[in-house]
Amino acid sequence: MKIYEKYINTLLAHSKKKSESRFAANQLLEMHFEATKRESPVIVELGVDKGQSTRVFLNAITDKSNARLISIDIKDCKEAVKSSNWEFVQQDSVDIKSLLLKKPIIKDGIDILYIDSLHTQSHVFKEVYGFFEYIKPKGVIYFDDIDSGPYMNGQRKDSVSTEIVNRKIFNLLEAIFRANYSSIDFSINRGSTGLAKFVKNSELGDKLNPPIFIKKRQFKFFWKLLELLKLKKTYHHDNSSNESFLINVDNDKNDE
Ligand SMILES: C[S@@+](CC[C@H](N)C(=O)[O-])C[C@H]1O[C@@H](n2cnc3c(N)ncnc32)[C@H](O)[C@@H]1O
Predict the structure, then answer these.
(1) Is 71 close to ligand 1, i.e. is its CB under 6 Å away?
(2) Same-domain check for residues 78 and 110
(3) Which listed site, 78, 167, 200, 231, has its alpha carbon 20 to 30 Å from 252?
(4) Are residues 146 and 106 in the same domain?
């Protein structure tokens, strides 16, 4: 039996429930699956606390030679878990220079980075921009606390501050994705705190372009009128022509 298999089995049981606990379980199981399928991953975790996610990663890498989990927290969490695959560093997660001196293996590339420390937009910005160049090609970055839905007015975990901060972090991820389509795939799990996933499609050492924030439009009729006045050309989906489809199913050349 693996080190924290009992905990993983509990998560699996929750993932089959109708209640919302399945969303929380699925977030952790998604990361467990990602770590399990890699041969000898280097995982960096930002934010340990009582070690919920730490247990998940450690379980996935038990028995994998050369796999390791490096966890960072500003407070002392060294007693959170026990495993020979685990290395704990007490420091600020954005001080990457000092982390690289302590853990130079990070320079060779990270398979999975999990961002779950200080939940502010500016802190997450520093973490993702600081660590991105050390992510391996096809490496993954997970971000916790990106769903504002469960924290909205009258919802299960009604909390105005979490609602707003989670939305700000999500807006940041959208803005990063918008500026980096060619080097990131972006997907999300919703319903609990929310888990976002970036998969890196570029090389070790490649950096991110600065985020592109675009103000979301409201008041459709106002914008329509403005477009009319400016004679602005906009996109219209046209089923009768192939122009509207990025991939033409009738064209075999797409398969080449
Ligand atoms: C939400 S908890 C982490 C939970 C953990 N990942 C889990 O699944 O159980 C956030 C942690 O981030 C830590 N933290 C807050 N600010 C930090 C910073 N600037 N650098 C590193 N860790 C920080 C806190 O001490 C706290 O333990």
Answers:
(1) no
(2) yes
(3) 200
(4) yes
Tokens of 121: 């937009």
Range of the domain at 241: 220-255
* 135 and 167 fall within a common domain: yes
* pTM for the predicted model, two decimal places: 0.95
Q: What is the domain-level CATH number for residue 110? A: 3.40.50.150
**For residue 222, how far is its CA from the centre of ligand 1 (angstroms)?**
44
Residue 17 to residues 4, 226, 242, Cα–Cα distance (Å): 21, 49, 43
pLDDT in tens, the chain (256 residues): 788 999 999 999 999 999 999 999 999 999 999 999 999 999 999 999 999 999 999 999 999 999 999 999 999 999 999 999 999 999 999 999 999 999 999 999 999 999 999 999 999 999 999 999 999 999 999 999 999 999 999 999 999 999 999 999 999 999 999 999 999 999 999 999 999 999 999 999 999 999 999 999 999 999 999 999 999 988 888 878 777 778 877 766 655 5
Residues 13 and 93 in one domain: yes
For 119-138, letters b (16+ CB in 10 Å) and e give bebebbbbbbbebbbbbbee
Same domain, 148 and 95: yes
Residues 192, 137 within the same domain: yes
In contact, 81 and 13? CB cutoff 8 Å: no
What ligand 1 atom has the least distance to the C-alpha of 28? 8
How remote is the C-alpha of 63 from its chain's centroid? 26
Q: Judge if the beta carbon of residue 73 lies within 6 A of ligand 1.
A: yes
